[in-house]
């Protein structure tokens, strides 16, 4: 049975809200407005633009998303489901009317395979669940007066894990991820404590900077695309990171892919794997050059330990 989720904001009284930091207090005092934003089809970026204008708050999309996950989790998930489904409606109509798709699971698998169900664009695992999808689909075909077989999630003992052929959401893993607390050391010597679920999805930035690349975590490494004539193969570097304990657990790893798509990709090192978190324009690193150079130096220092394996992981320019 799927675990019920709630909006924490619905259980806070004004006295409890008054004890929160200014930004959260102002947003929660205007929770009806936040709820209205989430019921719209506006992106988080569009919602933040309205918040800045109407509530006079300086807040980034990243910080706003964290706020929603903390206080409006149910409403935020419903917003994501509605937005993803809305973007898929034309394709769903085409599949039913012109392609002969006759049941909900066939449509779900088609959309899943072509990436149409992603909540986060660059995260392969961030998709709406089948149970949420078929409920929206049921409403949609009723409105359109279409004929389609709706297969409930538990029919023939099939569930979300069967459809995706992956095991991401077992209850045991979820309990561990949400209860185990990890201390993350910050640049200033202090620590912040978060559960693993947070660390698998987010990273810590300067609270009031408004920049999602204003990193404050101490264990930050940058894998370059090229350095001193060497071209680093990131796919191979990821294998190297998995094979050996190159860095502390839960470190942030940046990959400079600016030569290809002008982006810096952000990963977190968890249990020998690199978990994708986000990306940002490489043009923005001019604001954090000292931090970037330090992160690069830290990676190269570690990499030299495995210098004898270098030819496996890099090639040379003009070679």
The share of residues in helices is: 40-55%
The chain-level structural class is alpha+beta
Quick one: biggest sheet?
A: 4 strands, mixed
**What is the chain-wise order of helices and strands?**
HHHHHHHHHHEEHEEEHEHEEHHE
Give the termini distance in whole angstroms: 58 Å
Count of DSSP-assigned helices: 15
Radius of gyration: 22 Å
Shape: globular
**Count of all domains:** 3
Report on this model:
There is one protein chain. Strands 3-6-7-8 form a four-stranded mixed sheet. Strands 4-5-9 form a three-stranded antiparallel sheet. The protein folds into three domains: 8-71, no CATH class; 78-169, no CATH class; 179-316, no CATH class. Helices cover 46% and strands 14% of the residues. The chain is α+β, with helices and mostly antiparallel strands and 319 residues long. It has 15 helices and nine strands. Residues 155-176 have low confidence and may be disordered. The N and C termini lie far apart (58 Å). Helix 5 (61-71) crosses helix 6 and helix 6 packs across helix 8.
Topology, pairings included?
Blueprint: H1 14-18, H2 22-29, H3 31-39, H4 44-55, H5 61-71, H6 73-97, H7 104-113, H8 130-144, H9 160-164, H10 171-179, E1 181-185, E2 191-195, H11 196-201, E3 220-223, E4 226-227, E5 230-232, H12 234-243, E6 252-256, H13 258-261, E7 263-270, E8 273-281, H14 289-303, H15 310-313, E9 314-316
Parallel strand pairs: 3-6
Antiparallel strand pairs: 1-2, 4-5, 5-9, 6-7, 7-8
Helix pairs in contact: 5-6, 6-8
């Amino acid at each position: 049975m799927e675990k019920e989720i709630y909006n924490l904001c619905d259980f806070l009284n004004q006295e409890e809200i008054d004890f929160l930091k200014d930004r959260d207090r102002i947003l929660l005092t205007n929770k009806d407005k936040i709820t209205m934003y989430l019921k719209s089809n506006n992106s988080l970026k569009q919602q933040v633009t309205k918040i800045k204008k109407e509530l006079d708050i300086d807040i980034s999309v990243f910080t706003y998303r964290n706020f929603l996950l903390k206080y409006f989790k149910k409403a935020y998930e419903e917003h994501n489901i509605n937005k993803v489904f809305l973007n898929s409606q034309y394709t769903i109509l085409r599949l039913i009317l012109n392609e002969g798709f006759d049941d909900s699971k066939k449509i779900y698998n088609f959309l899943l395979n072509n990436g149409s169900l992603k909540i986060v664009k660059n995260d392969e695992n961030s998709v709406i669940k089948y149970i949420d999808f078929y409920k929206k689909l049921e409403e949609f075909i009723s409105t359109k007066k279409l004929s389609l077989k709706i297969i409930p999630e538990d029919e023939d003992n099939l569930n979300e894990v069967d459809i995706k052929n992956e095991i991401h959401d077992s209850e045991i893993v979820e309990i561990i991820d949400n209860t185990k607390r990890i201390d993350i050391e910050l640049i200033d010597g202090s620590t912040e404590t978060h559960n693993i679920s947070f660390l698998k999805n987010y990273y810590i930035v300067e609270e009031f900077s408004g920049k999602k690349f204003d990193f404050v975590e101490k264990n930050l490494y940058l894998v370059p695309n090229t350095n001193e004539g060497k071209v680093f193969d990131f796919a191979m570097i990821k294998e190297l990171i998995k094979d050996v304990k190159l860095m502390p657990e839960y470190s942030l790893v940046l990959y400079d892919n600016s030569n290809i798509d002008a982006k810096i990709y952000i990963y977190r090192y968890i249990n020998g794997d690199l978990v994708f978190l986000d990306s940002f324009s490489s043009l923005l690193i001019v604001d954090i050059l000292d931090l970037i150079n330090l992160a690069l130096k830290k990676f190269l220092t570690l990499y030299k330990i495995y210098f004898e394996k270098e030819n496996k992981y890099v090639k040379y320019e003009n070679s």
